[in-house]
Amino acid sequence: MAKTRVEIVQETFLNWLASAPAPTVRLDDDEPLGPHTTLTARRAREIFADQLASRLLDVAAREMRKTNQSFYTISSAGHENNAVLGALLRLDDPCFLHYRSGGLMLARSRQAGDVDGILDTVRSFCASADDPISGGRHKVWGSKPLWVPPQTSTIASHLPKAYGMAYALRRAHRLGLDNGVGADAVVLCSFGDASANHATALAGINSARYAVRRGGEAPVVFLCEDNGIGISVETPSNWIHDNFSALPHLHYVELDGTMDAIWDRAAEAVAHCRRTRKPVFLHLHTVRLWGHAGTDAEISYRSVAEIEAIEARDPLLANARRLVATGAAAPDELRELVRTTQARIEAAAAAVVRAPKLTSVAEIVRPLAPYDEVAIRAVAREQAAPEVRREHFGTLPEKETAPLKRTLCAHVNAALADEMLRFPEISVFGEDVGRKGGVYGATQGLQKAFGPHRCFDTLLDETTILGTAQGAAMAGLLPIPEIQYLAYLHNALDQLRGEACSLQYFSNGQFANPMVVRVQGLAYQKGFGGHFHNDNSIGALRDIPGLLVGVPARGDDAAMMLRGLVATARACGRVAVFIEPIALYHERDLHAEGDGAWLFDYPTPERMLLPGEVGVYHPKAKDLLIVTYGNGVRLSLRAAKLLAEKNISARVLDLRWLNPLPLDAIRKHAAACGRVLVADECRATAGGIADAVIAALAESGFAGPLASVRAVDTYVPLAAAANLVLISDRQIAAAAEKLAGR
């Protein structure tokens, strides 16, 4: 049988060790490897040991895959020089790592002393429930003691949150937050040359540069490990250098060669970042051995000659030769190191294959959506002192009688101020939220009251906004970012889906990024603005596991729901989206112009609403139940009045919470009324909640008639044409009348 490329590379390395001559000189442990470097013999041997362990673990993963004991074969082979960064960085320098970071992780584990990097790595690629970071949920590099949050993306979607973490370090330190990160810490973020082209990578790098240009800080080290290829697509020669070497506000450093050639330049770059608090771009030249992963037939897109030329640049072999040539190590020492490291890996593998795996749904989902109502209500009891509130508000918002102070928008504004008074770690940021106070006034006055560090304008990029929120949350802050319009959120949805909402799940609850994302959205703006200002599709949000989604319909609910989400985020680390219906921001009336029936008193600050707590109108009505939310609540109440004129009593259920849906409340009220109409202002096909509500009722055995009124599957047009595709009060009334058999 022909030898595999793994076997060929291993044989080349081991054959050289077997025949290498003993060094003519021997360095003392604290002597540098040469006049050009400060890397000592002892440190060089330690780095090499970590590189060797990473390589042998990659071999073991592929061998164990043959017997279905390992489930991950993307290796770090050829990237082992990233171990130099693992040795240089402190343990309180947070690291956001891509999947070829074996050497770096093992070097970092060595610093910790009590972390067995070899055993933990074997656990991770064997999906062991004992894996100390993910508990068997995914093969990720991560460790709470090593300050390495798990990154599950195969692209570069972690760069924006690495910047966010770097941005937040100083504020977190000033607040005295216990996050385990030093005041002068830097953040490392690694990624590949192919991923450097991804929009999220460019967003992360751009946001760091932008922060410095605006006079801020961004102590982040972007480590681009350039192996010249992404799966089978080659990166053009010098592409990374040409793209990033001359960018303003980004210190570019190229790294190549053996570990001693890399050591000092990397150390200087990290020191520069730590001293100046400005971003650094490390361009580390690597090679990729053995294809993209174990299932990748590299010979299908590379010739044997090309593969052999790459293998000739094996950094492990080059570093072994360098150790022997300089007298830092003898060949027999390195051979013994191979033997003992292999023995450790084999012992770890023998133990791990017998270790338990995840065996139940309950185990799998346990860290996905933690919810502790006792802890949440305890947070709600932490109130700002009355004199602090009086100093801020002047006239307390619960005492206001002016119409402008009793709208939904005014309640959101007051609730944000109340939460910022309660919790100094809260910051509000987004596009136009600072000096302007939001395009609809929802954040008006907050920057003036709390300063530009707690309420500030970001650059116009939703990926950056959500990435900043994630990093800031991991640093210990409680961000409330704003996405200016629901349609804009889709530009950056994976920052919620793939990153923020997966963190607790893939870290087994050890890391969290609590946040409340305010989104201005939904339709009914009387034909103004078109699609981008009238987006009525929430299906993509409801598809995200663990995400809380709330939609208020009235001002007092908005204030209490926002408080509930802040308390839930703070107590349980949850990620929430709060969709504020734009058309209801300044609405005052319900049935007739001037009736003021959609103005509400501001609830006192101890009152809040939690997920699952619904709103019920006309609770004694039993002819039918109208299930709705957002703009649909006001429309359904208008419809209920029309129905009452025909002696049909309609109970209206405001869901308030769209993910998870309050199914118990729906079933309860459906059973009481016997007929159910869902009034869903979002798109008919997977854009809203009608499908889920009707399915849940049908599957629970509800035997009464069911119907729905939904918006048309289209983008929302301008002018009066919008009324043709959105649901109306008369449409709801007509459907209800039909359902009631009248």
Describe the protein's architecture and organization.
The chain is 41% helix and 12% strand. It is α/β, with parallel strands linked by helices and 742 residues long. β4 and β5 (233-234) form a beta hairpin. α2 packs across α4 and α14 (373-380) crosses α23. The longest helix has 25 residues, at 41-65. The protein is elongated, with a radius of gyration of 29 Å. The termini are far apart. The mean pLDDT is 96.
In short:
By secondary structure, the protein is an alpha/beta fold. 41% of the residues lie in helices and 12% in strands. The strands form four sheets. It has a seven-stranded mixed sheet with strand order 9-8-10-11-13-12-17, with helices on both faces. Strands 1-2-3-7-6 form a five-stranded parallel sheet.
Helix content: 40-55%
Number of helices: 28
Low-confidence parts lasting 5 or more residues at pLDDT below 50? Answer: none
Shape: elongated
Question: Main sheet?
Answer: 7 strands, mixed
Strand ordering within the main sheet: 9-8-10-11-13-12-17
Structural class comes to alpha/beta
Please tell me the overall pLDDT: 96
What kind of assembly state do the chains in view correspond to? single chain
Tell me the span between the first and last alpha carbons: 80 Å
Strand residue content: 5-15%
**Radius of gyration over alpha carbons?**
29 Å
Could you tell me the number of beta strands?
A: 19
Fold topology:
Layout: H1 5-19, H2 41-65, H3 83-88, E1 95-96, H4 102-112, H5 117-125, H6 159-174, E2 187-192, H7 199-213, E3 220-226, E4 229-230, E5 233-234, H8 239-244, E6 251-255, H9 259-276, E7 280-285, H10 304-311, H11 315-326, H12 331-352, H13 361-365, H14 373-380, H15 386-393, H16 408-422, E8 426-430, H17 446-450, E9 455-457, H18 462-474, E10 478-483, H19 486-489, H20 494-499, H21 503-506, E11 515-521, H22 539-542, E12 548-550, H23 555-572, E13 575-581, E14 615-617, E15 624-628, H24 631-644, E16 650-654, E17 657-659, H25 663-673, E18 676-683, H26 690-699, E19 706-711, H27 722-725, H28 729-739
Parallel strand pairs: 1-2, 2-3, 3-7, 6-7, 8-9, 8-10, 10-11, 11-13, 12-13, 15-16, 15-18, 18-19
Antiparallel strand pairs: 4-5, 12-17, 14-16
Helix pairs in contact: 1-12, 2-4, 2-5, 2-11, 2-12, 5-12, 6-7, 6-18, 14-23, 16-23, 24-28
